[in-house]
Design a protein that fits this description.
- The protein is of the alpha+beta class.
- It has 10 helices and 10 strands.
- The chain has 2 domains: 2-156, Ribosomal Protein S5, domain 2 (2-Layer Sandwich), CATH 3.30.230; 164-280, Alpha-Beta Plaits (2-Layer Sandwich).
- A hairpin with a 6-residue loop joins β8 (242-245) and β9.
């Protein structure tokens, strides 16, 4: 199975809730960068293997938690009497604002549903995924989506035309929790015009989309790490139609008009300070 990364084509925070969660409005887009996952039936229990040593292979891993939740919720109902082994071949950088962990958890829920022939509909899977994390409902749905609430109120949008993306991932890790805890509404001077972006998407106008992307969380992450704005500027200098930090960072992406210009930028930016990827929207 492919567990795809996501980028945020815009991200706005509209309020802070009494439970300290934030209400957001964001346009999410899946990209072809992905982890490869295999889910197999074993006699009992849950086993997890991952090729990346920093990823825990026990119940601290959200993919493991997804399998545990699925078993607890559906084993009796669907007569599941065995266990699963999950293998993750990691390509998505960790703690990078690309929903790598959430996409793994979503893939586990989707994969176990198919493996055990439960035929649980997508709405119920999304509701189950929400119990584990705010990005998981989107990762189950995929594509081009407007996400509201805490990221769990999803509206599918028209798919944007196939677009080439250069992804710059600085070699730092950023805690999503830290970014949201340090977000200050008073420091936001520019917010995304979501209606303009939705109109651009409905018309398939990638240039207007790229010109008007805004992520208010840059006021936290880019303020602390200069490499965020440096990466955005490099992408623009080498031909990006627009560039933005994804999620809480530190990943930054640029939208390019075609595959050739994307690979030219990749060659010019390539250095040991970043992990660099050329990918495309899916």
């Amino acid at each position: 199975m492919k567990a795809r990364a996501k980028i945020n084509l815009s991200l706005d925070i509209t309020s802070r809730r009494p439970d300290n969660y934030h209400e957001i409005k964001t346009i999410m887009q899946s990209i072809d960068l992905h982890d490869n996952m295999v889910i197999e039936i074993i006699n009992k229990g849950i086993e997890l293997e991952c090729n990346y040593p920093k990823v825990p292979c026990d119940n601290r891993n959200i993919a493991y938690k997804a399998a545990e939740l699925f078993m607890n919720k559906y084993s009796a109902k669907y007569g599941i009497k065995c266990g699963v082994k999950i293998k993750i071949d990691k390509n998505i950088p960790v703690a990078a604002g690309l929903a790598g962990g959430s996409s793994n958890a979503a893939a586990v829920l989707i994969g176990m549903n198919k493996l055990f022939n439960c035929r649980i509909n997508i709405s119920e899977l999304i509701s189950t995924g929400k119990q584990l994390g705010a990005d998981i409902p989107y990762c189950i749905m995929g594509g081009t989506v407007l996400a509201e609430g805490i990221g769990d109120v999803l509206s599918r949008l028209m798919s944007i035309p196939k677009t080439y993306i250069v992804l710059v991932v600085p070699k730092i890790e950023v805690s999503t929790k830290w970014v949201y805890e340090n977000f200050n509404f008073d420091k936001v001077s520019k917010r995304p015009d979501i209606n303009l972006l939705l109109s651009a998407i409905s018309k398939g106008d990638v240039k207007i989309l790229a010109d008007n992307m805004v992520n208010v969380l840059e006021t936290v992450t880019a303020e602390k790490f200069d490499v965020i704005n440096d990466s955005k500027q490099k992408l623009k200098d080498f031909g990006a139609l627009g560039s933005l930090m994804s999620g809480s960072g530190p990943s930054v992406f640029g939208i390019f008009k075609d595959k050739v210009s994307a690979y030219m930028a990749y060659q010019k930016i390539k250095c040991n300070d970043y992990n660099l990827f050329v990918t495309e929207t899916t």
